[in-house]
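batch job 7 of whatever, protein = PEP-CTERM sorting domain-containing protein
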Amino acid sequence: MQASKLVLAALVVAACSGTASATAIDWHISGAGNLGSSTGADGSTTLSYDLTESGYGYREWSITGVAPEAGTYSFLWDYSGLHSWFSVTARLTTTTGATLVDAYAWGCCESPSNGFDYSGGYTFYNVNAGDTIGFFAGGSHYDYSQILRGSLTLTPTSQLFDGGSTSPVPEADPAAMFAIGMTAVGALVARRRRA
């Protein structure tokens, strides 16, 4: 009886806790131009593109990875670059359809023109083993320099984010979750004693 109470308490606490998987994703980038990938000591991955003579249309790069196991995958992201100076766009979306960045500047020197740097967090929920998850980074310009250059740094985190928001989902206090679990176990024991 005592062991079943402890198992029940552990299940309640586990069900109420919300953290992302710590399993690493092997990221890849595809698209036109010079592409790069590097890994940081903190487990972050930076994927970059550099396309000169890009033309004037919208160009996009696919940054994807395959989930090694089922779970929730959460990342802090930093998207920065230079998409020239005139009539510049910068866009970052996810494979789930969320828009994280959708920026435009008509003239020079207001972000995303003359360089940009956006950051936030994103969580992929209910991912199955073998699913492809990722991001689409891109932009355009109407500038004679024809430069599209950018990088996306992804850092795994246990922090969860709500939808396309960069605001973290508030995590429950472990002590409060334990108290709720113990209250549930106490109520179950009291109910069985009455029966």
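notes: Residues 19-171 form a domain with the Jelly Rolls fold (CATH 2.60.120).
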